[in-house]
């Protein structure tokens, strides 16, 4: 079937369109079935149990379960229950929201681990032999899998209800590759300090998704937008997502923080205070922006901005008041986004952002990057122990702590932000254009509606 | 605006009332915005990273994360998901229930830590210089923050649907001060043994809330009570709260239990058995009190009474059967409260207790205090190790374990109960009267209804 | 009241039936109240705090809390929130689903610990004196209590909506005895390797429940089956159960895995990969079996089959690809069951399986047993360390690791499967027949409907 083929008659076009689409849907299903099998083969060829997992390794690493597993499980709940239910606010699209979260999350754990490990090894070693070393599987790698899924699910928030399940799958397929490349550049090359992934995950995921939402928007989007609404119960379901995200966010930021120099506990304390301030400030800001009333949109989303806003600086010596200030700023930026900016972007640019990921992940992510630039710039060895400065600023890269160059550390944060925005916008644009090009083969007909994808009991 | 000013005409009064109220609402929003900023300043002046948090402290306390953090997260979920959803049973007030739980919880974490630390330092050291020592922030302090929030949220259960969001905020503001004072007297002065906070948190929160509910009741309460009902779905949402509270309660009781002499594991085992017996007994009692049928009110609430009933004795040598007996008694007391007593209190005293906190937190809390009196009275060094008796009974206060005075330890439990009841009832009455006095400036017009506080999508 | 007595007139029979049933309901309530009291007495006589729990034991076992407690809490959430909400998909039976889960779970924790400990001691020691040694209570024993509850709740899935609450209780009462006997034979006698309980818990629970569902089916089942359906919101509630089960399943499989030779972390890694593959494959299979659409039944259930399928081999050296393959097979088998087989069993055998436990627990459990046979058969000491082979294969039973007999280890898996199927089917049949015989005294009149058991607010 030739893409872009001219069809003279609307009706025929539509009919043929459906035939093509039927074929496209079927093809996609079997394509991903083969892809799943290939991933099993890839794990067979390129992965093995790590030293803390293999029954043959003499090392007994039970301790690492106690250290990481509870945090991993919290992250797991955030990704699947948190993101899943947060998106159920659409009153006719709740099945899709939770189901596609599970579908994409389960896919991304596998594909994310493969891609992250691939780029990571390539950038770390810069020789082809490095690729021969197998991926050592352990709990830390599983966390990386969930982080990949989080980035894609954030992007999904921007296009929610507007792309078909298979379009979402292709988005995930491409996004993971670019996500993992950007991550490798930031982590292995720019030596960024981004313990909570505010740049690597949140900023990237948000702007990637916005670019896809812009370029791959359905032609009937405008007349269907009134369907993108919530109901009384759907807003209650969404609060399940909000509350688990809010409570477990400290685990997200600290899962890969490491333990030396009290780092993990500092990340937890900073994140809790940022979220508490953000949570309370959101209620005040919502009343201020909404003429004395509260909006469930703000309550569901802006309360979480503190987790993103502290992300890149959560292990830094921000002090309690610094963490609280960032949380408060996160709430203000996010509430402003939901109450004012989002409508402007929609009416002026035609950019429809279903879940408002720009307000929850995009702007707070940029805020966090800028804050981390300031905290790095003003850091000095005396505020940290030798171990502390080494753990918090990878830019030191093995040098003596007394050689710590705060300007260099700060600038790396800005370069990383710029790199992330570039990869997200360019990658998202390319992905969006591809999805649009193939929209004949699979697309969502009735937006914001489960009916198209699900069997309904009568 | 003069309070109590006579207004001759109903209509004018109402109109002026709304004008005043509009001003009161606006004032409250900005008042709490300033208050939030002042809390940031206070944390800047009076708090610092603790030894297990600061990057500059040489100590590496990763272990404390493994020891406390999973328990802390369970408590976090109980406070925000548990209490939040438990209160969604009101079919038109679910948004308010979960949202205000988040608003008040986020506020109380901050304000609670400040107040608890303030009174604690004052009572522990009894000199002004003690106040110059900064609050050392760590996971244990965060748990104290969540405990403060729990006390206020229990009180909120008694007034749910009847106070406006800003009235709730002022209640929280005052309650935390009195809660922290009562806590300091019990912990630092009376040397109470109350590992699960049955007195400090549950009894205090319940009777404080009941006093507020009595004194600050809206004038139109009686004719609106028929709105305080549940629907099929709202009862399902409430079960989310119930089940998380039921499952995680052992973490609540053990979060600050300490590890020596097996204390934490004993608290967990006792609480699980108390809850299992209570959970099952509730179903039987509900059928007995309700003519063979079950009531969702009992299922949602009385099943949890075992967690409160074992609270003050959870670290004591109660034996499994002792814990089970307490759980069973908790179920009986609580079911009796929901099925019989609550209606009597309402019709005879005009005391409307929306969530029945008297049945879930009040009476089981008193039961726990009395049980702890008996278990302390019969305790002896030979039932405990030297380390055990020191950890369980702070009344020993550094004396040799062989000097343990069971009568003294027991009486301290009773004094603590009396002190808690006095502070709760007097503090709640004062707070209720203040709220009533200012009800012109902010009050709930349409009870048990989200519409007044939230924007609704059309 | 004579059972089977002939009653000439329908109406009289019905009237008398209700009188008998009223008496039966009342009797059952008080019977279980006495039973609860007897369980308290039994724990008083036969149980005591274990060495890690008693305040008098010098040993300080705080570490065991960090090692097991987070896993135990995840299992707790799976049993009460997971199973409870998974079964709320019935749109008029959601209250019953979550409530009876709590009722039965709370009962089974107690009764399960007593029965498991009883048979365990009898089989381990084979002398009567062994029974004089008290049950040592600790976190591991609590996990056993939750596992017993899980088996019964799986069976409940097969009969959901068709048995009255008291019939369910009697089923639980008998099932636990047989469950604990089968478990003791497998664990203590056949020395099975079944770390995740795929045979002990899932296969047993499923086939026991199916037998009960077959023999104790209500006479009016056929005409009421149209009521066994879901609604839009009830399917959303069910997804709460699904997602918590999906996320926490690695904790279920690893809770009693032990730490030596990296066992626990290997179980976690294997289970995560099995579930990820299963989760994604389910979406593809659902589209293939359901003509391009997804079914919420598949999404809610088949996504979890990977947790069961890997269960018996989760600690074995399956490699990542092996775990993934098992997960994928689990999805295929389970989707096939839901889409095709279940309807056939219903129309051909009259076997109605409300939640499709045969597809989620039955067939994947058998699959896991067969897979574990293969993995055991091909195991050798060189794939494991000495410690590893001893932890994974109890059949070694203290012998030197070099004496490991793979054929013996493999066959024990098959014997265990056969034993489990026999006990489940015979035990379930007996229990079903007893329930049917006494159905005059208590039975469900209006199937799949909460109204009969619950007070409704008007």
TrEMBL record, chains A, B, C:
Statement: the UniProt record of this protein carries the keyword Cytoplasm: no
InterPro entries given in the database record: Ammonium/urea_transptr, NH4_transpt_AmtB-like_dom, RhesusRHD
Regions crossing the membrane: 30-51, 71-91, 98-119, 139-161, 168-187, 199-216, 267-285, 320-339, 360-379, 414-435
GO molecular function, one term: ammonium channel activity
Main location per the UniProt record: membrane
Domain Ammonium transporter AmtB-like: start-end pairs: 37-435
Membrane topology of the entry: Multi-pass membrane protein
Keywords annotated in UniProt: Membrane, Transmembrane, Transmembrane helix
The name this protein goes by in its record: Rhesus protein
Name of the coding gene: Rh
């Amino acid at each position: 079937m030739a893409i872009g083929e001219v069809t003279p008659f609307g009706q025929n076009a539509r009919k043929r369109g459906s035939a093509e689409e039927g074929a496209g849907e079927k093809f996609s299903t079997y394509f991903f079935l083969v892809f799943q099998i290939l991933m099993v083969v890839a794990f067979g060829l390129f992965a093995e149990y790590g030293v803390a997992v293999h029954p043959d390794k003499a090392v007994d690493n039970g301790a690492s379960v106690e250290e990481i597993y509870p945090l991993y499980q919290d992250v797991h709940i955030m990704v699947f229950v948190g993101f899943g239910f947060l998106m159920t606010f659409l009153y006719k699209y709740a099945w899709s929201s939770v189901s596609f979260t599970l579908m994409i999350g389960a896919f991304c754990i596998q594909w994310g681990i493969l891609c992250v490990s691939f780029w990571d090894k390539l950038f770390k070693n810069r020789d082809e032999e490095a690729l021969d070393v197998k991926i050592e599987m352990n709990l830390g790698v599983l966390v990386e899998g969930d982080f990949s899924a989080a980035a894609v699910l954030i992007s999904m928030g921007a296009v929610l209800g507007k792309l078909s399940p298979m379009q979402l799958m292709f988005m995930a397929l491409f996004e993971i590759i670019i996500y993992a490349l950007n991550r490798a550049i930031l982590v292995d090359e720019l030596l960024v300090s981004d313990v909570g992934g505010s740049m690597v995950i949140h900023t990237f995921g948000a702007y990637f998704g916005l670019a896809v939402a812009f370029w791959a928007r359905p032609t009937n989007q405008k007349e269907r937008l009134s369907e993108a609404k919530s109901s009384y119960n759907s807003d209650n379901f969404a609060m399940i997502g909000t509350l688990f995200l809010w409570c477990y966010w400290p685990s997200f930021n600290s899962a890969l923080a490491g333990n030396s120099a009290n780092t993990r506990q500092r990340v937890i304390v900073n994140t809790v205070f940022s979220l508490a301030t953000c949570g309370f400030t959101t209620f005040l800001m919502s009343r201020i922006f909404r003429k004395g009333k509260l909006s469930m949109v703000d309550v569901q989303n802006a309360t979480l901005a503190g987790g993103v806003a502290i992300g890149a600086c959560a292990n830094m010596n921000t002090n309690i008041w610094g963490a609280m200030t960032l949380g408060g700023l996160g709430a203000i930026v996010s509430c402003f986004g939901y109450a004012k900016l989002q409508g402007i972007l929609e009416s002026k640019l035609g950019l429809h952002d279903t879940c408002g990921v720009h307000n929850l992940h995009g702007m707070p992510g940029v805020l966090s990057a800028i804050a981390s630039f300031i905290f790095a710039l003003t850091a000095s060895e005396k505020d940290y122990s030798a171990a502390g400065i080494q753990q918090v600023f990878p830019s030191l890269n093995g040098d003596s702590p007394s050689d710590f160059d705060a300007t260099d550390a700060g600038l790396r944060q800005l370069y990383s932000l710029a790199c992330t925005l570039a990869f997200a916008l360019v990658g998202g644009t390319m992905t969006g254009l591809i999805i649009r090009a193939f929209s004949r083969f699979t697309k969502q007909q009735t937006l914001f509606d489960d009916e198209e994808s699900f069997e309904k009991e009568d």
